[in-house]
Amino acid sequence: MAILREADKDKMTVVEGSYAVAHAVKVCRPHVISAYPITPQTHIVEELSQFIADGEIPNCAYMNVESEFSALSALVGSAATGARCYSATTSQGLALMHEVLFNFSGLRLPMVMTIVNRALSAPINIWNDQQDSISQRDTGWIQLYAEDIQEASDMIAQAYKISEDKDVLLPAMVCMDGFILSHVYEPLVLLEEDLTNEYLKPYETNYKLDPKNPLSFGAFADPSSYTEFRYLQQQAMDKAINKVEEAADEFKELYGRYYGGVIDTYMTEDADIILCAMGSIIGTLRDVVDNLRSNGKKVGLLKVRAFRPFPAEAIKQAVSNTSVIVALDKNISIGLNEGALLTELKSILYNTNLNMPVIGFSIGHGGRDIPEKTIEDIVQKAENVIKSGISHESEFVDLREDLI
Amino acid sequence: MKELLSPGHTACPACCDTMIAKFTLRALGEDCIIISPTGCLEVTTSAFPTSSWNVPWIHSLFENAGAVASGIEAALKAMNKKEDTKVVVLAGDGGTLDIGIRSISGAFERGHDIIYICIDNEAYMNTGVQRSGATPFNATTTTSPSGKVSFGNPLPKKNMPAIMNAHGAPYVATATLAYPKDFMKKVKKAGSIEGPTYIHAHAPCTTGWGFDTSKTVEIGKLAVQTALWPLYEIENGTITSVKKVKNKKPVEEYLRMQKRFKHLFTKEGGEEEIAKIQKIADENIDIFGLQ
Ligand SMILES: Cc1ncc(C[n+]2csc(CCOP(=O)(O)OP(=O)(O)O)c2C)c(N)n1
Ligand code: SF4
Ligand SMILES: [Mg+2]
């Protein structure tokens, strides 16, 4: 797979990431937006509020709710009424939504929510890592991770297309790193309204609350049927794998921009070492790969765009010839001492004939900077693994010994 | 007339929750959308793959009915589909006064056009009769049992209608399943008023309160006749009607019929406790001008 960025220079403007996302939401024509402010998501909801105040999103209600719990609960009602819905949150707000997340996906309602990834308290910290969305991995939501603000905004349209697909009908999170993407100003193409009208048809469904055709939502399922509801959700996730690819391909066709499907690869074909990660760190990794390649080191990059559904087959193909895989995780399962990518990568390779070593690094917690030097040191460790095997399967990066 | 809540649900015989639901639908007709949070009504009417509901119905969670209802209302309006459709919450006391109070508060503050009906059976019935903020003083529940040093629930009932009135709701009323015509009149009235309206309905629960299934209505009436359950309407902050209590009955008559108050008649010191409950009834007479 190749990165293709034929972004039309004439169409580019310089805006903040949050504005780009809010603009993308606007041109996707939602009927109900419901959100609660929390740093660093605030700029998105402020921009949307301004669009509403200026009458720029017709037939759309913006609900100023009293909590994230109610923000998402309200959208349960709206989506069940057949409305296209949007929300945005992060960290504490996403944690507060936990119970509603399961409910939303279990009811098989579509929507898109931007997660502006941020660390969780305690200690309280408003900066970026991905512990918040990773902690919601089993809630039945599609999770897509964006590398830059062009992708984070374009992904909104793609996510609606996937989420509302009749074979999927699952809600989707579009994850973008807090501050690093939400507050950065960069040149980009604002999601084109005319193309989006073509790309994203209005949401139509027969499953809605309508007095003319009364249906019951949220039934009580006892042990004789509950399992099948879960099974069908898993089936929908399986189908979503292809839908993520299709949404990206169609997007490329129409808009000329492409970021990968469920994954994207960079110089992986002949790579001895493959770095695997999600989100804005990909930009740094690309530069490191370029540098190391110019020094003759065969390093490649595997970008995971879809964390749920997890792209097991695509990853297995991409890594099949490499000597070592390195997972870089901005999250950790405390008590296992592994980030989520490390765990998932190991699990999909087990029971296959691929038996290259996989090592992982916990990195960038609570907004800790990730300099290129840190990545180069990690690559050094990966080279040692090739030479002499694994010494540490998973470790924290750049620990400050003076604080421990 | 077609019943919009079908029989065949799994509620106890003479269940207060399903009776209130039936009366609500009789009053409003087909053009409504019902939201039920988790509780007896939800569990007993929606066992997959069946449903008792002949109107659109949704259950999401225990504590979010206010938010779900406001999302439905907002969506209907945004899509120009609201017309005369009524968005109606039928919720238990636990789902309203306790765990759901945040979301109902938000919904009323935002002024959505919804009818919120609290079915007050004065405890968490669905999970086995635990105490709620609506459990009356001195009632036993499984988490406020009477014992050697306890007469049951030591706290007064939370005054939810006053809280909803404080939100500026254009219409707040109390009602009871024992006077269904009065209840249905109030539901219709709530439906005719734009904005968030609230009806707090007394709902004697045969299982949770401990009385024979033939006594539901009698007990409901006694609550009104003893002045323990004042019936009133508040419109735009002003009390506009109260049901007068002629020949007020002593609270003992109400308490004696229910197992949840049995200890007041068997334990030493019970008389003084009954006197405290009588005082609550007497105060209601003064506050609402019931005589
Ligand atoms: C978050 C959460 N906490 C607790 C429960 C367990 N629960 C389900 S229904 C219920 C009580 C319902 O009481 P009420 O609202 O008064 O309705 P009733 O069953 O009495 O009609 C409880 C405690 C739950 N479902 N969700
Ligand atoms: S316990 Fe009470 S509220 Fe629950 S089904 Fe039985 S009668 Fe109805
Ligand atoms: Mg109750």
Describe this structure in words.
- The complex is a heterodimer of chains A (404) and B (291).
- The longest helix of chain A is centred in the middle third of the chain and has 30 residues, at 226-255.
- Helices cover 39% and strands 19% of the residues of chain A.
- In chain A, the strands form 4 sheets. In chain A, strands 4-3-5-6-8-7-15 form a 7-stranded mixed β-sheet, with helices on both faces.
- Chain A folds into 2 domains: 6-255, Thiamin diphosphate (ThDP)-binding fold, Pyr/PP domains (Rossmann fold), CATH 3.40.50.970; 263-403, 3-Layer(aba) Sandwich (Rossmann fold).
- Chain A is of the alpha/beta class and 404 residues long.
- Chain A starts with a strand and ends in an 8-residue tail after the last strand.
- Chain A is globular.
- In chain A, helix 1 (17-27) packs across helix 2 and helix 7 (149-164) packs across helix 9.
- Chain A is built from 13 helices and 18 strands.
- Chain B has 291 residues and is an alpha/beta fold.
- Chain B has one domain: Rossmann fold (3-Layer(aba) Sandwich), CATH 3.40.50.970.
- Helix content of chain B is 39%, strand content 15%.
- Chain B has 12 helices and 10 strands.
- Chain B has an 8-stranded mixed β-sheet, sandwiched between helices. Chain B has a two-stranded antiparallel ribbon with strand order 5-6.
- In chain B, strand 7, helix 7 and strand 8 form a beta-alpha-beta unit.
- In chain B, helix 1 crosses helix 7 (180-192) and helix 3 packs parallel to helix 5 (101-110).
- The longest helix of chain B is centred in the last third of the chain and has 19 residues, at 270-288.
- The radius of gyration of chain B is 18 Å and the shape is globular.
- The A-B interface holds A 31-32, 34, 59-61, 63-67, 69-71, 73-83, 99-100, 103, 107, 209-211, 213-222, 225 and B 30-33, 35, 42-43, 46-49, 51, 53-61, 63-64, 66-81, 85, 102-103, 105-106, 109-110.
- Strand 10 (216-217) of chain A pairs parallel with strand 2 of chain B.
- Thiamine diphosphate binds at residues 17, 38-41, 62-63, 92-95, 119, 121, 124-127, 132 of chain B.
- Chain B: Heterotetramer of one alpha, one beta, one delta and one gamma chain.
- Chain B: Its EC number is 1.2.7.1.
- Chain B: It comes from Methanosalsum natronophilum.
